[in-house]
Amino acid sequence: MGEAGLYQDLPAAKPKELRARGQYREFVDINRRAGNYPKVLRRTADGRTCQVTVWCSNDYLGMSQHPKVLAAMHEAVDEYGAGSGGSRNIGGTHAHDARLEASLAEWHGKEAALVFPTGYSSNDATLQCLLRVLPDPFVVSDELNHASIINGIRSTRADRAIFRHNDVEHLDELLSRQPHDRPKVVVFESVYSMDGDVAPIEGIVEVARRHNALTHLDEEHAGRSTTAEADWERLG
Ligand SMILES: Cc1ncc(COP(=O)(O)O)c(C=O)c1O
User: Fold this and answer.
1) Is any atom of ligand 1 closer than 6 Å to the C-beta of 36?
2) Measuring CA to CA, which residue among 104, 183, 177, 185 is closest to residue 149?
């Protein structure tokens, strides 16, 4: 590739390279229809549509289509308009966001809660903040943790170690090499998305407490433990 043509050649060469490695990502044309969860309309490259069932959504309880959720959203859009118009830093906080945070905090028996727009940003921002604020922290992360966790940790200078997936003894061993009074954070998920396996939460928390470590738990997939039908019925 010539130097002069680098900026032109690269956008063509890179996708070719990814295709050759089988890593080129193509997005599937999937269209959810309210009231039809978890069935969606898939449009194929030749323009045909067919109905398929989606098994890879994070909307485990189908709440995005619950009539009460839809009615509340319609009401909110009519009253306040769509979107926030800017981040909290720029445009301030809406009273409903503050109410949501207060209700989440109460539900979890905590002093306060902070809502993030995505799971990715919550891991990334929280870990970055925590590991920059703690003096000389040591972070231990499960080997199968999500990219947002890895990214959050990598963007700090914290000393780190990886424990074998769901292996409490390995975690114990890694933590026991650190001074008791050194700030430590154990990062793990409750339900892992790829295989649906569940972390030994009690064991991990016990080991963390024994070694004077904080825990950071990602619950992105934990909603799976309740069936969608049961929750819909409860809401009425
Ligand atoms: C364990 C875990 N944490 C965080 C995320 C990121 O969440 P989001 O897609 O809401 O940004 C994902 C994505 O699926 C995930 O699997």
Assistant:
1) no
2) 185
